Amino acid sequence: MGLRASAWCACYIRPHFRRHALDQVGRWDPFNVTEDADLGMRLWRGGYRTAMISRPTLEDAPHTLGAWLPQRTRWFKGWMQTWIVHTREPARLYRNMHLRAFVITQLLLTGTFVSALLHPLVLVNAVGLSIWLTVQSPDPAYMSLIAWIDWLMIAASYLAFGALCWLATAPEERSKIGWRIVLIPVYWMAQSVAAWRALVHLFSRPFEWEKTPHTAHQRQD
To answer: Cβ(60)–Cβ(217) under 8 Å?
Structure first.
């Protein structure tokens, strides 16, 4: 199945750094497969700040599952590596980042891969609970409320993801999303496959870098 829809939120950044800042924070980590995530953390902890240059790189996101899955696997594995490295001394991390940045870091890194890992389990629980409630009267009664809350949270998550993708897409490109919006649940399941694959790779081949083929941006007028 083609995954062209994954390009909605894809953002490829060509970084530019001051050499002395890189030297101060230890330069690149050759063992982290998402070195930009790790370097961003170390720059922040070193007292530096980054900013975004809002210019396109004219590089397309992967269009096939064969190219997309290894890329997402690498990203998830690298985020896990980054979290492990920087939180092995949580008190020191807290002192470096202070409360707000510390909380955001924990939510962003852990929330990204933990939510992807748990998404199939959430769906199985919601479906199983709904089937159970249809074949017998709920006892206790609040179980039906839990089922409704489960489905409401799942639907809200999909809608929030779709809204973020819409906002992140250039206005002139939004019309190309079209019917692909209905593939969000499929995309999330694919994300979960990548996350579980990354977890396995974290223990079996933690430093393997799965290359991602990219093509130059092709305008579709």
So the answer is: yes
